[in-house]
C-alpha cells in the first residue's frame, strides 16, 4: 500500500529536492574543524605524533644499545659519538631517551585506559541508578581521593615489587576517581533528558540505554579527561622513578634517567645529562595538555566554529 | 484503505475490538519524597499527582490542561510508567500495569502506549541518526525478522509523518523543530501503539508549525484509530483537538467534561477563572466578558491546603471547603467535578 498518495500531509515535509540542500556533515568532521582552529592543540598533536612514532620505532632509530656501558665515555658531552651526551655509566642518552619513551608512554596510556574504564563504569552506574548505590559509590570515591596520593603510591610500590605492570595497576586502580565523578555528573543530567525517557518508554533495557544512548553523549568529557590523564600519569611515573620507586634500572624511563642525576656535581658539571630527559617530560606533558584543551573545545557544542 | 488497517497487523491489541475504556485510572497518586540532610531522610513529599481518577475511551482524545506545576506532565509520565506511582491503579486494556515489573511491561505497555515529548531538541538523541532512532525499537522488540522489512516499515512510517525516506541517515540537528517533532511522532508510532500521550507536544513550536503538527496528529488518529491523551497548557489547542477535557490544579483533577460543556459552561470555579484568561476577539457592542482574577499565589504542592486545594483562591469558598475535600463526582451526565458547590 502506498501511503502518501491517499492523504496529503500538511506541510513542511522533507521532499527529495530539499534533501539535497540539507547539510549532512558527519559530527566528527565538525569536530576536526574546531580542533584545527586551535593552533596550540595542532602543535601538541604533531608533537605527540612524532614522540609516539619515535617510541614505536626506537629499535631502528636508536644509534646504540641503550644498556651498553662504556665507562670511559661517562658523562661525555653531546658530540659526534653521543648526539645528546652520555650518562654517568657511559650509556648513550639519545638511545635511552628513545627506549625510555616507550616505557613512559606505555605506562601513561595503559594506566589511563584502565582508570578510564573503571571510572566510566562506576560513574555510569552511580549516575544512572542514583539513590543508595550512588551514595555508597561516591563515598568510596571520597575515601580514595582523601588519601595523600604520593604517600599511597610510595607505600604500595614498596609493598609490591615495582615493575611496569604493578605501576600500571596502581595508577589504574587509584586514578579512576576523577573520571567516575565526571561521568556520574554527565549521567545525572542525561538520564532525565527526554531522549532517555523516550528510550525507556520504548522498552529499551537499562544496559542499552547506559551504553548506547547516554555514553556516546558523555564521550567528549571522557576523552578530554583521558588525554589530560596520560600527561598526569607520565609525570607521576617520572616522579616515582626519580625517587627510585618506579621503573627499575637498567630499563630506561624518563624518570629514572633523572634519578642518577640527583648528584649536584653531575647537575652542574654535566648539564646535558638531566636536561634532555627533563625536557622530554615537559614537552610530552605539555603536548598532552594542549591536545586535551583542543579536544575539549572540539567536543563542546556550545563553542561555535 | 480502511481506517482500521494498521501498519503492523500481527500485533495483538490490548483494547480488543470493543469501544469501551482503553484506560481506567483509579485514585492514582504520585508523591515525590523530599529528602534532606546527609542521611537523606524523607521529610515530606511533593504531591505531584494526588488521587486522580478518570477513564479514556478507545479512539478518543482526552485533553489535560492546567498551569505549570499542576502535575499534568507527571500524570502522563506515571501513566506510561516512567515513574513508579505511589498509589492507585492504572488499568490499561483491562490489565493492571501499576505493579508490573519492567520486564513484564514489554508487551502490554511498551508496545501499546507511547509518548510524544515536548522539546524536539531534547527528545532525540543527538548522536543517533534518524534510521537508528527508528530501527532500535523494532530490533529490541523483535518485530520483523530481517533488515529489509524493517527498513520498509521505517520508510513507510516516515512518509506517514511527512518526511522523505531519503533523510534516514541524517542526524537530529540537521532538521528543523517541526521536522524533529515529526520524527518524535514517527518514533512513537513505530511500534504501532494504541494510546499516545502527547506531553506538550506542540508547545515548543511556532504557531504555524503547531497547526501542522496538530493536523498531523488528527490525521494519524483517524487512520490508525489512535487514542490520545493530550497534555497542554494551551487551552485553545486542547479545545481544538480534544473530545473530553480534564482540568488539573495542584495535583488533583478539578473537572472533567466533554469539550463543549467544559468550554461553554464550566462548572468548577477554577475552570471558570482559567477560561476567562483566554483572550477573545469581541464584536463591537457586544458585552465585555468578565475576567476572573484569582487572588494569591499557587500554593506549594509540598504543602497543599487542607480541604479543597483550591479554597485559598476560590471566590466562592465556603467554610466547608477549608475542612473537607470535595469528592470528584458526576454533577451532570458525563460531567465530573470536584467542588462542594455541586453536591
From TrEMBL, chain A:
<feature type="transmembrane region" description="Helical">
    <location>
        <begin position="266"/>
        <end position="291"/>
    </location>
</feature>
<dbReference type="InterPro" id="IPR025966">
    <property type="entry name" value="OppC_N"/>
</dbReference>
<dbReference type="InterPro" id="IPR050366">
    <property type="entry name" value="BP-dependent_transpt_permease"/>
</dbReference>
<dbReference type="Pfam" id="PF12911">
    <property type="entry name" value="OppC_N"/>
</dbReference>
<keyword id="KW-0812">Transmembrane</keyword>
<dbReference type="Pfam" id="PF00528">
    <property type="entry name" value="BPD_transp_1"/>
</dbReference>
<keyword id="KW-0813">Transport</keyword>
<dbReference type="GO" id="GO:0055085">
    <property type="term" value="P:transmembrane transport"/>
</dbReference>
<dbReference type="InterPro" id="IPR035906">
    <property type="entry name" value="MetI-like_sf"/>
</dbReference>
<protein>
    <submittedName>
        <fullName>Peptide/nickel transport system permease protein</fullName>
    </submittedName>
</protein>
<feature type="transmembrane region" description="Helical">
    <location>
        <begin position="136"/>
        <end position="157"/>
    </location>
</feature>
<dbReference type="InterPro" id="IPR053523">
    <property type="entry name" value="Oligopeptide_permease_AppC"/>
</dbReference>
<dbReference type="InterPro" id="IPR000515">
    <property type="entry name" value="MetI-like"/>
</dbReference>
<feature type="transmembrane region" description="Helical">
    <location>
        <begin position="163"/>
        <end position="183"/>
    </location>
</feature>
<feature type="transmembrane region" description="Helical">
    <location>
        <begin position="222"/>
        <end position="245"/>
    </location>
</feature>
<keyword id="KW-1133">Transmembrane helix</keyword>
<feature type="transmembrane region" description="Helical">
    <location>
        <begin position="40"/>
        <end position="62"/>
    </location>
</feature>
<feature type="domain" description="ABC transmembrane type-1">
    <location>
        <begin position="101"/>
        <end position="292"/>
    </location>
</feature>
<comment type="similarity">
    <text>Belongs to the binding-protein-dependent transport system permease family.</text>
</comment>
<keyword id="KW-1003">Cell membrane</keyword>
<dbReference type="GO" id="GO:0005886">
    <property type="term" value="C:plasma membrane"/>
</dbReference>
<feature type="transmembrane region" description="Helical">
    <location>
        <begin position="103"/>
        <end position="129"/>
    </location>
</feature>
TrEMBL record, chain B:
<dbReference type="GO" id="GO:0015833">
    <property type="term" value="P:peptide transport"/>
</dbReference>
<dbReference type="InterPro" id="IPR013563">
    <property type="entry name" value="Oligopep_ABC_C"/>
</dbReference>
<protein>
    <submittedName>
        <fullName>Peptide/nickel transport system ATP-binding protein</fullName>
    </submittedName>
</protein>
<comment type="similarity">
    <text>Belongs to the ABC transporter superfamily.</text>
</comment>
<dbReference type="InterPro" id="IPR050319">
    <property type="entry name" value="ABC_transp_ATP-bind"/>
</dbReference>
<dbReference type="InterPro" id="IPR017871">
    <property type="entry name" value="ABC_transporter-like_CS"/>
</dbReference>
<keyword id="KW-0547">Nucleotide-binding</keyword>
<dbReference type="Pfam" id="PF08352">
    <property type="entry name" value="oligo_HPY"/>
</dbReference>
<keyword id="KW-0813">Transport</keyword>
<dbReference type="InterPro" id="IPR003439">
    <property type="entry name" value="ABC_transporter-like_ATP-bd"/>
</dbReference>
<dbReference type="GO" id="GO:0055085">
    <property type="term" value="P:transmembrane transport"/>
</dbReference>
<dbReference type="Pfam" id="PF00005">
    <property type="entry name" value="ABC_tran"/>
</dbReference>
<dbReference type="GO" id="GO:0005524">
    <property type="term" value="F:ATP binding"/>
</dbReference>
<dbReference type="InterPro" id="IPR003593">
    <property type="entry name" value="AAA+_ATPase"/>
</dbReference>
<dbReference type="GO" id="GO:0016887">
    <property type="term" value="F:ATP hydrolysis activity"/>
</dbReference>
<feature type="domain" description="ABC transporter">
    <location>
        <begin position="34"/>
        <end position="275"/>
    </location>
</feature>
<dbReference type="InterPro" id="IPR027417">
    <property type="entry name" value="P-loop_NTPase"/>
</dbReference>
<keyword id="KW-0067">ATP-binding</keyword>
